[in-house]
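Limitations
The structure tokens in this dataset are predictions for the assembled complex, not deposited experimental models. Users should treat interface geometry with appropriate caution, especially where small molecules or nucleic acid strands are included. An illustrative entry is reproduced here so readers can see what is and is not provided.
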Amino acid sequence: MRKYTSVHDVADLDQLVKEAQHLKANPYKYKTLGENRTLGLIFLNPSLRTRLSTQKAGQNLGMNVIVMNLDKEGWALETQEGAVMNGTTVEHIKEAAAVMGQYCDIIGIRSFPKLQNREEDYSEELLNQFIKYSQKPIVSLESATRHPLQSLADLLTIKENAVAGKRPKVVLSWAPHIKPIPQCVANSFAEWMGQADVDLVITHPEGYELAGEFTKNATVTTNQEAALQGADFVYVKNWSSYTEYGQVLTDGEGWMLTNEKLKETNNAKVMHCLPVRRNVELSDEILDGPSSLVLEQANNRTYAAQAVLKRMLEAL
Ligand SMILES: NCCC[C@H](NC(=O)CCC(=O)O)C(=O)O
Ligand SMILES: NC(=O)OP(=O)(O)O
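Predicted assembly:
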């Protein structure tokens, strides 16, 4: 594998999940695979889970890992072709990515959307420029439109907690937030679940429709109560509007999941990628109660990353 930016980079999804499961049981089995190989993790936005779990995944495979908060510790980056750099940007991505490619065998990069211009965000310019100019295998650590390491960990978590022999009903349920949040976790989750052996229902208030390319295999409804009927998993997530790009259209009153609402479900397990704003996106009673899988999801991030890095190392 030379590129891990979406589910489309995975030829055999089931096999990758099995590999992650195998690595969870045997985390140090491939301790020599990454010997004398360098993993560079580049962040243009904050991170707790992705940063630590991917670092740990690389170390479990014997890699040297270097981490840089490029937004704070690097030179201001220019991405425009042909730019006359007489302003605030100091270094072009052409040199920056090429130099990092010389230091690293595999590069992970996180870069959020700006939520100002939809076409610009959805073109994934920064991620694609990194792929082009670094000349090295690239792992998305969450980009403008997707979060594939999160989605793989989510799928693993669902596989582990599903009742054997039953195709699970998975509901992606929009939640309130205090500010505009990217669509990438929701896009990515919908895209992955659309490829998995699950029934996917997405519920959100009017105006929060995700881009059609991500929701092809989903049932979409603005009726949360109906969506929750018989659910086995409820994935809670806020996102800002895609159609009225980057806007917050409602305070979302009544959309926060509660134990009362969970009564409609098939004793559903509740998921969230974290970080979560308690009692805005999700209630204390759920996060502190028996239905929450959020910590298990975060734990599975290590093995999702390890499965992807293992494949990349094997292809070097
Ligand atoms: N990496 C996981 C989630 C990242 C992002 N959350 C945030 O930006 C939270 C910001 C805040 O709550 O202020 C999101 O939900 O897409
Ligand atoms: N879920 C997730 O990606 O968390 P971080 O933003 O902390 O990495």
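Some entries come with short summary sentences. For this one: The pocket of N~2~-(3-carboxypropanoyl)-L-ornithine (ligand 1) is lined by residues 142, 179, 181-182, 184-185, 273, 275, 277 (CB under 6 Å).
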